[in-house]
């Protein structure tokens, strides 16, 4: 890869214990071909030394505006960047960025950057929930920065709560989506919006051992959630039986059965601008749940399994609309007469958009790629060629953004 063609990433590192995780984030950027400049704060160097940042990036890591002044680093680093990501972003750093303070190289870089900027906060729960921090975050988001939600988990000491830095691999994936959108990402078009995405496949228990399920891995729904977060949305992901890692900056609610998924989706949808039902929800469940494992009895054939209908979550969402202007998107997995069945389902369910794709044992389910046609209630038809599921996600969010009422 030619030097000039390599995306230029500035990795700002704040002074928090999570600074050690930024080493892994830096390594991922470098190994994927990005040109990375690490800009730690003085406080960050108390946790991870300058030699580590320089060795991992292959470039000098400095904190002072007074070093190499002939290159005007306090201006040039931000001017030439394709992406600035700050991880961890401490409460202090968020406050300085929101108020335009520039007392070191990183805060100067944030003022001169005209590229997309991503903040990955990490701090104790009380600090994250403090009104001052919330106002600073709102200010940064209003100006176009992507401030991802921290994860919930173990903090320093014995404390647990919201404020943990998301896993480096997931921060990297979000940043990769931001970079893929190019200059458009400098103005996140889903900022200020709450979107709900369902993903995975429901499982309907037959007995304590067995269940009725499907082949859905959740990859498309997770791609939708990750892409929406990269475009600035507040995202709630209702995940059914997926083993995928939680996307950075996304609130994840886990569900097992169709009834549980319905409850979680309806609750999250109460204030949502858009709901995307990408999960493979079982149409039926066993009418009777066996309290003990169903055993073979000699040569006798097993009793037939009676089924009962599950709630139609998509039709319910489209029919009730929790708030005016709420957009509802469905998915249709078809094995034959794909478009004809898709159009019939779109009319029957009453949703605004329907993603129709052909599925099978070696198609779509479990794959990193997808191919689909997005049908619109107004008659529109948008084909999405075979490619990464993130590409389909971006196309779908483009259509959603055009249809969400302004304001």
Runs with pLDDT <50, length 5+? none
Number of helices: 13
CATH fold-level name of the largest domain: Rossmann fold
Q: Beta-strand level of the residues, as a percent range?
A: 15-25%
Shape: globular
Major sheet summary line: 8 strands, mixed
In the CATH scheme, the class of the largest domain would be: Alpha Beta
Give the termini distance in whole angstroms. Answer: 43 Å
Level-2 CATH architecture of the largest domain: 3-Layer(aba) Sandwich
* Mean pLDDT over the residues: 91
Radius of gyration: 24 Å
Catalytic activity: N-[(R)-4-phosphopantothenoyl]-L-cysteine + H(+) = (R)-4'-phosphopantetheine + CO2; (R)-4'-phosphopantothenate + L-cysteine + CTP = N-[(R)-4-phosphopantothenoyl]-L-cysteine + CMP + diphosphate + H(+)
InterPro entries: CoaB-like_sf, CoaBC, DNA/pantothenate-metab_flavo_C, Flavin_trans-like, Flavoprotein
Domain DNA/pantothenate metabolism flavoprotein C-terminal: 190-401
Region (Phosphopantothenoylcysteine decarboxylase): 1-194
């Amino acid at each position: 890869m030619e030097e000039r063609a390599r995306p230029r990433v500035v990795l700002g590192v704040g002074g928090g214990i999570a600074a050690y995780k930024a080493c892994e984030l830096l390594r991922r950027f470098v190994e994927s071909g990005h040109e990375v400049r690490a800009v730690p704060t003085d406080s960050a160097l108390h946790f991870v030394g300058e030699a580590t940042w320089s060795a991992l990036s292959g470039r000098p890591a400095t904190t002072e505006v007074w070093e190499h002044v002939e290159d005007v680093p306090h201006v040039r680093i931000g001017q030439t960047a394709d992406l600035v990501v700050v991880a961890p972003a401490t409460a202090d750093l968020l406050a300085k960025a929101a108020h335009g303070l520039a007392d070191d190289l990183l805060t100067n870089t944030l003022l001169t950057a005209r590229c997309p900027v991503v903040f990955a906060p990490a701090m104790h729960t009380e600090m994250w929930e403090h009104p001052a921090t919330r106002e600073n975050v709102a200010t940064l988001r209003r100006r176009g920065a992507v401030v991802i939600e921290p994860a919930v988990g173990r903090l320093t000491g014995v404390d647990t709560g919201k404020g943990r830095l998301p896993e480096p691999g997931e921060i990297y994936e979000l940043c990769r989506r931001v970079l893929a959108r190019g200059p458009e990402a400098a103005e996140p078009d889903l900022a200020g919006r709450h979107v709900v995405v369902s993903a995975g496949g429901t499982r309907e228990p037959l007995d304590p051992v067995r269940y009725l399920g499907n082949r859905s891995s959740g990859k498309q729904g997770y791609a939708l959630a990750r892409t929406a977060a990269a475009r600035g949305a507040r995202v709630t992901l209702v995940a059914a039986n997926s083993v995928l890692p939680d996307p950075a900056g996304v609130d994840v609610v886990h569900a097992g059965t169709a009834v549980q998924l319905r409850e979680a989706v309806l609750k999250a949808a109460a204030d949502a601008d858009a709901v995307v039902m990408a999960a493979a929800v079982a149409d039926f469940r066993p009418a009777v749940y066996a309290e003990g494992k169903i055993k073979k009895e000699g040569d006798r054939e097993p009793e037939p399994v009676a089924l009962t209908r599950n709630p139609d979550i998509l039709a319910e969402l489209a029919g009730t609309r929790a708030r005016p202007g709420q957009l509802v998107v469905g998915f249709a997995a078809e094995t034959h007469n794909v478009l004809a069945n898709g159009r019939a389902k779109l009319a029957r369910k009453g949703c605004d958009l329907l993603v129709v794709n052909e599925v099978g044992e070696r198609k779509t389910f479990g794959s990193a790629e997808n191919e689909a046609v997005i049908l619109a209630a107004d008659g529109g038809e948008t084909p999405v060629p075979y490619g990464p599921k993130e590409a389909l996600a971006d196309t779908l969010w483009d259509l959603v953004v055009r249809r969400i009422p302004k304001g």
